[in-house]
TrEMBL record, chain A:
PANTHER family: F-BOX/TPR REPEAT PROTEIN POF3, PROTEIN TRANSPORT INHIBITOR RESPONSE 1. This is Transport inhibitor response 1-like protein. One of its GO terms (cellular component) is SCF ubiquitin ligase complex. Residues 11-52 form the F-box domain. One of its GO terms (biological process) is pollen maturation. It is found in: Nucleus.
TrEMBL record, chain B:
Keywords: Auxin signaling pathway, Nucleus, Repressor, Transcription, Transcription regulation. One of its GO terms (cellular component) is nucleus. This is Auxin-responsive protein. Homodimers and heterodimers. The lineage of its organism: Eukaryota, Viridiplantae, Streptophyta, Embryophyta, Tracheophyta. InterPro entries: AUX/IAA_dom, AUX_IAA, PB1-like. Belongs to the Aux/IAA family. Transmembrane segments: none annotated. Gene3D superfamilies: Phosphatidylinositol 3-kinase Catalytic Subunit, Chain A, domain 1. It comes from the Eukaryota. Aux/IAA proteins are short-lived transcriptional factors that function as repressors of early auxin response genes at low auxin concentrations.
Amino acid sequence: MVRGFGWAAAFPDEVWEHVFSFLAADADRNAVALVCRAWHRIERRSRRRVFVGNCYAVAPAAAVRRFPEVRAAAIKGKPHFADFNLVPTDWGGGAEAWVEAMAEGWPHLEELRLKRMVVSDDCLELIARSFKNFGVLSLVSCDGFSTAGLAAIAANCRSSPVHTSVGLEVAILVSVASEGVNELSLVYLLLSSADIPYLRNLRELDLHENEVEDNCLNWISHFPESFTSLVSLNIACLEGDVNTSVLECLISRCPNLKTLRLNHAMPLEKLVSLLQRAPQLVDVGTSKFSADHHPELFSKLESTFAGFKHLKSLSGIWEAGPTYLPAIYSVCESLTSLNLCYATIQSPELLKFVSRCKNLQRLWVMDLIEDNGLIAVAASCKLLQELRVFPSDPYGVAPPISLTEHGLVAISAGCLMLHSVLYFCRQMTNAALLTIANNRPNLTCFRLCIIEPHTPDYISQEPLDAGFSAIVESCKDLRRLSLSGLLTDRVFKSIGASANRLEMLSVAFAGDSDAGLHYILSGCKNLRKLEIRDCPFGDKALLDNASKLETMRSLWMSSCSVTLGACRQLALKMPRLNVEVIDERRGRPLESWPDDFPVEKLYIYRTVAGPRSDTPPCVWTV
Amino acid sequence: MGDQSNSPSSSIDSSSHPALCSTSSIFQTRRDLLSTDLKLGLGLSTSALHGCSSKERYASCETTMDVSPSSQSFLPPPFPGPYACMSASLLRFMPSKFSSSSVSSMLDRSKSFCTSSVLWEQLSHWPPIKPLLRSTLEEKVHRSHSKTFFVKVYMEGLPIGRKLDLLSHNGYDSLMRTLRRMFRTTITCPDTSRVPPEKAHVLTYEDEEGDWMMVGDVPWEFFLRTVKRLKITRADKC
């Protein structure tokens, strides 16, 4: 009766399950699963959420088998540098294998979130058909599908007053059971008919920054009339026009709609009439925010936005001009999140708008805000936690903008709750970085991109080692860091020694020698993802720290100085790593290349699934 | 493509590292060089340059480390960005498998390509901005380059006028700066009066109704819609 550790059997499984339900973090649940067989069994049957950071780290069937009762899954595919076109388009990250396995093993799946994966229309159709109680579909930075696939999703949406199809079947069966067998079989036939899709409650359709082919203009009209459960709709990444009247009907019949993010194509007049139907919105992404000045449109816009009593988040605002922005001043006070990175308005108007947003926690803006704007933000937005400043002119063709290190320093001084920064600029000094580090030791994410590679401290002409070292030494909780500017091996020494909580590091055009990479790989205890481009890092550091790579999720190196021989050695030494060599130029197979052949792009990741079977011609698993 | 004559230094000079120049000089060079249409830069294929292996690009990074930051005797290179790096490094760190003839032909090809920072971006997908933002910005640039609105500008006392593209400016400040440069005179805005009246000029414009108005009173977008031509007149006349 008592096997292994007796104490585990002291309580029935349901009690342990209940205890484990308080463990949200995957790391905690993983730890629990290692204690004893009983706990392993109980934990795996009770895990409801699964996060797969690298879709090739485990075979889909294995994941589905291990955790049979999953309700929410999140899967990531391509390496992060795919966002910047560094990964070949046919590299992989296809979602079919996962969706097929999930359709088979997780019929009760409610939430699916895919990031940087290739999702085909067939995949979308499979998702539409397979999950009875599907509620949330989120596709971020994916590609491979079209609006026809979205039409399939939309068409299969049904709202039902009963939450499970089984319940409905039972209810009908009970009511006709007394009528006799014929009626019973008729009803059952109706319910299980192939023509009737599964009953579902789609709440959230989130399409964020995907590349979607536009081949089905009216996909929105495929949502049935009975569909009313929508809570969140984000179609900001779609290129084509969306039928406004159909959308208006959809919005009118979904009383719980809280998030609506539209795409660029809708004209401002139509946007206004659309938004008028949903004053309960909390998160709005507008369409194009520019038009010729019409006083009537201005006042309609003004009254529509004045009607938003609960608006917290605003985005979109494509091509905003100073004409219509003042119409929405009324919402500024309540905003906690503002994304103006597609609004190419100049500093004075931008400043007027942003400085009214006293409760802002997140601000994404173009560098058109300039230093003066950021100084004003630092004075007015005291609750700011996250700031992202994007370059309006990354290729240096327009007259220069006055956004320098001073803006960021001002923000670091004025916004005491600031913990996340992404900042594109053209100049930086060590002194500024030191000041920022001292002002904000609570930074958890610091990403600085000085647009011209190898830019030194513009006053002292020194490398920016001292500045970034100060950042990692002062910000003890730093989890994410991106380096730029002129950097020697010294900065990596500091990072390796001090960045104990660092999980993700991005390096470009930095370092002098292998020592740089060695410092990182031999330090940085919690490093999960390392991505490097155009640095003089080579074989020795990689081979000396081979075992470190198994403690990380992945390593990307492109345009560095790694040779094929080192990759071969690494693959031999570490069988649980997939060492993928990516080379788009050559046609000959990998086996014929000599050991000293320079590797163009390298992607190494730990896996229990072995080499993958879907590598394209330009990728070789060594 | 690309005007080499505006820089006195040879491009093959390892000390002329772009990053060690002051930022403003880089902008200067870039703006001068971008006489070529931006569309041309965007449409170029980079397949020719794919012949350069990663080793050369790495070598280009290594070279820059060798340059002493304290050296002040550098001049802005004629071709900013990778070309300056690549050309210098290719001479010093030529991998043995590449013959000098193939390198020089590569150099010739790259000379014709490496003229703008747009290509720098295409070569190395830098700076790291996401595709949606990138395409929004490119579209904006494309739009701003394809649309022009030239108006005549006369200065009082000069019979020959100039022409100016109003759409290449984003506001009154930018317009004033360009006009000051064009006509070498101080033009005061309606609300600033630092210059003595006898020297000052003010900027006026003729609107669609034929009236001459002071520039700066109406919003920029509105001004663009009504302006027909500009005139710089003496302040004491207003």
